[in-house]
What we know:
Layout: H1 9-16, E1 23-26, H2 33-42, E2 47-52, H3 55-62, E3 82-85, E4 88-92, H4 98-104, E5 110-116, H5 121-125, H6 151-157, H7 160-171, H8 176-189, H9 195-203, H10 219-230, H11 232-246, E6 247-257, H12 260-274, E7 294-296, H13 306-311, E8 319-325
Parallel strand pairs: 1-2, 1-5, 2-4, 5-6
Antiparallel strand pairs: 3-4, 6-8, 7-8
Helix pairs in contact: 7-8, 7-10, 11-12
Amino acid sequence: xxxxKSVLLKESIEALNIxxxxxxxxxxxxxxxxxxxxxxxxxxxxxxxxxxxxINAINNFAEFPISNxxxxxxxxxxxSKYKILGNICLVNDNFANLDKILADLQIKKVNAVxxxxxxxxxxxxxxxxxFSFQKDARLxxxxxxxxxxxxxxxxxxxxxxxxxxxxxxxxxxxxxxSIAKEIAKQRKIKxxxxxxxxxxxxxxxxxxxxxxxxxNFATKVFQALRIETNKELDSIREFIPKAIEILDKIGxxxxxxxxxxxxxxxxxxxxxxxxxxxxxxxxxxCQCGRHxxxxxxxxxxxxxxxSEIRTNPRSRSAKLRVVEKI
Length: 326
């Protein structure tokens, strides 16, 4: 059972322009809300490849009753990483490996790709994962539990300067330096092992006024730690060009970002792939032979409505960008 509310659900599914029989990739399965809508669009002749590095997301979705769809098996693969449910292929992997995943499935082109880079509410609710500053747990934050690096190792082993950099770049935290200094001080006394340990350290590093802002004073540090633990921005940089490459003609890619760093990466890659000739202006004839690979469907990002933000406050920073393969 999922408690997750998919962000920009109607807007993203409509923007993908999915048709019956399409092959679609949901690169970030999460709570499965987007995937379920995709299934309704592609019908019995379509194929859904849903990816998530968190095995719990895969297992939870596998329990979803899909008998109403009456799908036939279109996937022929015997790899434990791939769970086949009729026309659905659930993949326990990082979306950065999209090219390898599709090669394993012998799929060369797809009609649509969706990626929601936000964290699932199901993960926040898991008390043993350490994603939430509102629940006391060991500092873990690994999406993939097979990975070695945890948030606790970062907090207790990274240099003070590296912590400052992470908090500034990934969290845009204005108290980055004082928080990192306090962490370095406290971990000399004893390791910072739990989420509440870290919240206490953050609380000792910021002003009283900062503690009473609309957003909780620990939010930005926890966000930055999660991004660093899972190397999320590196994965996005690797994923988006691969997603563009595997789209069939007029196929669409939709990405939902929640952080300025994510959005900046998406904008830059989209801009680069939408460019045509890059010859100097004084060249009378194009010499580079470069043609645009995509066109922007959304000139400006689509934002959640006020009603969505009221019912799901976690959607407030979401931005949806959509491109189409030329």
